[in-house]
Amino acid sequence: MDKGVQFPSAPIRHRRTTVDGIDTFYREAGPADASVLLLPHGYPASSFVYRNLMAALGDRYRLIAPDLPGFGYSATPSPEDFGYTFDAYAAFLQAFVGALNLNRYVIWLHDYGSQFGFRLAMSAPDRVAGLVIQNGDIYEDAFGPKYGFLKESWENPGPAARRKIAEHVTAAGFESEFRGELLAAVANRISPDLWTLHWSLMSTPARIANLIRLLEDQPSTLGWFAREQAYLREHRPPVLIVWGPHDGYMPEKSARAYLRDLPDAPIHLLGGGHWLLETHLDEVLPLVDGFLARVYAPSVP
Predict the structure, then answer these.
(1) What is d(CA 54, CA 39) in angstroms, rounded to the nearest whole number?
(2) Residue 38 near residue 108, CB atoms below 8 Å
(3) Residues contacting residue 236 through CB under 8 Å, at least 6 positions apart
(4) What are the φ/ψ torsions at residue 127 (nearest 5 degrees)?
(5) Strands 36-38 and 22-29: what pairing?
(6) Segment 193-235, tens digit of pLDDT
(7) pLDDT tens-digit profile of 31-90?
(8) Please, are residues 169 and 211 in contact by the beta-carbon 8 Å criterion?
């Protein structure tokens, strides 16, 4: 980290609200009137993964991280009341933003949260101050090898594919999600709290079934990729790309693929993997802080 930049630890507030009838937990840091950084999480995580980022930047920005339905400390509606599909989660994030009356924001795009966040951006482009893209892919030809078992299940759906997916929705599978592909010296920075906490929260029969349903629905995102790429070309939102290349799902080529549509986008390839905030936060912070300062700088008449 730049030794000249200090990131004091700001308090994080833990709140609940009701969104479309769903009891929703979220973390919030920063002044109520500050510029917003919205932090939708991915699989198999929760708002917990943003805790350190929120504490570091919450002295001057308003950071908001919800637990999505069926994750973390939010409620788990029945499948009849909530779809547990990418469409359902994208609609939920839009409803959450509406419930909190957020009118302008930078969106953090990571893992599955990148799909929900992209659709939020596309639904109201004028509200997007910028995008921070961190290991969130929208280029199918740049997928990493870890997508292999998922691709097999997408191409041959059914009970056998569902059983294969279920083998990954386990405590060991969660550990692999957080530590996989990292060099040993980096992997030991990943706290066991991450997979232990999330497995303890997600290991109910209902939540496991919902996770499997969501993983099965991932092919539905492929049809959105071209639209998301077109959004980037047409609207040219300010973008910062910070990426952990040691990622079996989203390696370095997944980051560089964004240059096809945003040739001038800055890319910072750091030494971590999919969960970069757990291993390289000190390197990420000054990059994000500088980006937020630029996109939220007062306009000069």
Answers:
(1) 9
(2) yes
(3) 262
(4) -90, -5
(5) unpaired
(6) 999 999 999 999 999 999 999 999 999 999 999 999 999 999 9
(7) 999 999 999 999 999 999 999 999 999 999 999 999 999 999 999 999 999 999 999 999
(8) yes
Which residue's entry shows tokens 């964004």?
258
Structure tokens at 173: 């599978």
One-letter identity of residue 33? D
The answer to whether 74 touches 203, Cβ cutoff 8 Å, is no
Token pair 């069926």 is found at 70
3-state secondary structure the chain: CCCCCCCCCCCEEEEEEEECCEEEEEEEECCCCCCEEECCCCCCCCHHHHHHHHHHHCCCCEEEEECCCCCCCCCCCCCCCCCCCHHHHHHHHHHHHHHCCCCCEEEEECHHHHHHHHHHHHHCHHHEEEEEECCCCCCHHHCCHHHHHHHHHHHCCCHHHHHHHHCCCCHHHHHHHHHCCCCHHHHCCCCCHHHHHHHHHHCCHHHHHHHHHHHHCCHHHHHHHHHHHHHHHHHCCCEEEEECCECCCCCHHHHHHHHHCCCCCCEEECCCECCHHHHCHHHHHHHHHHHHHHHCCCCCC
pTM: 0.95
Beta-carbon contacts of 30 under 8 Å, excluding residues fewer than 6 positions away, are: 10, 54, 57, 58, 59, 60, 61, 62, 63
- 181 vs 193: CA distance, rounded Å: 19
Asked if residues 90 and 116 have their Cβ atoms less than 8 Å apart, the reply is yes
